[in-house]
Each structure stands twice: as C-alpha cells, then as structure tokens.
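In this supplementary section we document a worked example of the pipeline. Step one takes a protein sequence of length 162 as its only input; no multiple sequence alignment statistics are reported here. Step two produces a three-dimensional model, which step three serialises into structure tokens for compact storage. The input and output of this example are shown verbatim.
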Amino acid sequence: MKKFKSHIILLNLLILLVYFNRSIVAKEKLLENGQLVLLELAPVDPRSLMQGDYMRLRYKISEQLNIDSMPKRGFCVVVLDEKGRAEKWRFQESLSPLSPDEFPIKYMATDHWNIQIGAESLFFQEGQAEKYEKAKFGGIKVDANGNSLLMGLYDEQFQRIQ
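The serialised model returned by step three reads:
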C-alpha cells in the first residue's frame, strides 16, 4: 500500500508541474506575440488609489455600463487608434464575430457595478508611488483568444513608466 501512495503522490506532483509549466509557456507566448493595447485609466477612490506597494487600477471602458443587461462573462472587443489606444469598444458573450482590426479582451462582471477587464492592480517597489501617479494608460498585451497580461503603466506621451 505504501508503494501505491508514493506513485499517486508522484503522479499528482507531475501533473502540477506540467500545469504550471504550460501556464508559464502561455504567458511567455502572450508577451512575445500579443498586441499592446492602451486602456485609459479612470479615477479611483483616492483613499484606495495608493495602498502600500500597489496601485488599484480602473479603466474608463468599465464606466457607465448597464451591467445587469450584460453577460456575466464575455469579451470586451476594442478597436485601436494609431497610437494603440482602445478607441471604440463593445461587449459580447462569445469570441466571434470579430473583424480583422478588432481585439478581444476577456472580462468578468464582479458585482452590479463593476467589471474586471485585464489586471486590476499593479504592484511596484516600495517608495515608488509618486512615479506612477502621472499614469494615464494601462498597457496590456492581448492575444487572439482574449487573454491579457498587464505590461505596465504609460504616461500621456505614451511612454512606459519605469
């Protein structure tokens, strides 16, 4: 029986390692091949804008929505301008229809007032908060399946804040 338990433990460990490695490879592909989309940041409650070593993010796209009439999960489909900013958008339940100049971003309704599009917070080194206060855009990389990864924050001249 002991031999059987050790095989089960090793098998579970192997499955876990395969899962994590697939996740890492998928994120690396997204970083390499994804399209950079700049989402304009919206104001956040000033008391929660800076808390310790992270910044809570909110995007203008998520303002003024009738969330009760939207599917709980779906895709925010954006069209980019020449600078890479999300200019027009719509929300739909499935990945299609998409035209060649549109990019999908997965979203999830979190409650009756908010939707989560991409990353909702940015972690940074302690003492660096002032540098990020001038951020105007959140830069995310998206792939054809709507997966997204936060690349960083950008100022009004579209320069990444580092």
